[in-house]
Amino acid sequence: MAAASRSLPEALYREPPPTRFHEVHGANIRVDPSGTRATRVESFANGLCFSREPLAPGQVFLVEIEEKELGWCGHLRLGLTAWDPGSLAPVPEYSLPDLVSLGRSWVFAITRHHNRVVTEGQEEEPPGRPPGLLDEPYLHIEQLRIPRDRLVGRSRPGRYSHLLDQLYELNVLPPTARRSRLGVLFCPRPDGTADMHILINGEDMGPSARGLPTTQPLYAVVDVFASTKSVRLVQLEYGLPSLQTLCRIVIQRSVIHRLAIDGLHLPTGLKDFCKYE
To answer: Which of 65, 97, 161, 232 to pair with 178, CA 20 to 30 A apart?
Structure first.
């Protein structure tokens, strides 16, 4: 309860605990011992997962798509619920419509295109080039300022990396692709309610739900549905960037493309980190 009612400015200066998956989940989900990876082991349904703890205001529950499964129609679903996962017996088969029909739950179906929310009186903007990590290192949502470095999923370096994302300026991954990163958070409003925001590879899709209660704990919902088979949690930095992150930024600004990092005299682990592996 305290986590949900905490004010946003206070949350900005307090590092949230690491995110983990709840031990309560869908019948076809297996969570690894660390609580950071969830895999659907059969069928296309019964893949509901929840955060272990309620989210704090402004805290991002961020997952990266690790595995895909061909032959199914549909993709990952993401959202929030005011239900304590421990009280859900049995766990609903689907987030949409089963969990949402219980009330106090807000879930957004991720699609390959058209994930941005258009608010009333606002015209839909044509898809454009996302800002480069070196040009705009922070994502701003209302009072929040979140480093974009770990929010953005990256394709694995390959022969044509220098053509696809020269100088790390482009994000070329579709929302539903492997290694794509998707997150959910809520931002309190002055009227005592909150807006739910969906993040896709470092971009805010806008308020996908409004009027959420801030007086109740809100848990993240991840539905590992259909063609999405496995996801892993990604931990964020909310304060000052780590020394490792600062090193990566300096190195990225000094090379032409990711493959050039292999020629640097650096430890293998740092090279992989700089290439987003």
So the answer is: 97
Give tens-digit pLDDT for 121-149. Answer: 555 555 455 555 555 778 889 888 888 87
Q: Give the tokens for residue 204.
A: 């805010």
Give the position of tokens 């682990």. Answer: 269
- 272 phi/psi in degrees, rounded to 5: -60, -40
DSSP letter for 252, please: H
Identify residue 194 by its one-letter amino acid code: A
What residues have CB less than 8 Å from 71, skipping those under 6 apart? 227
Amino acid letter for position 195:
D
pLDDT in tens, 145-169: 888 878 988 776 555 555 455 444 5
Task: Please give the C-alpha separations between residue 100 and each of 48, 197, 218, in angstroms, as whole numbers.
Answer: 12, 17, 14
- Residue ranges of E strands in 1-115: 29-31, 37-40, 48-50, 61-68, 77-81, 105-109
Contact partners, residue 86, CB within 8 Å, separation at least 6: 22, 24
Which structure tokens are listed for 183?
A: 């997150």
C-alpha dist (Å) from residue 131 to 60, 139, 167, 208, 254: 20, 10, 12, 21, 19
Q: Which helix (H) or strand (E) holds 203?
A: strand 203-213
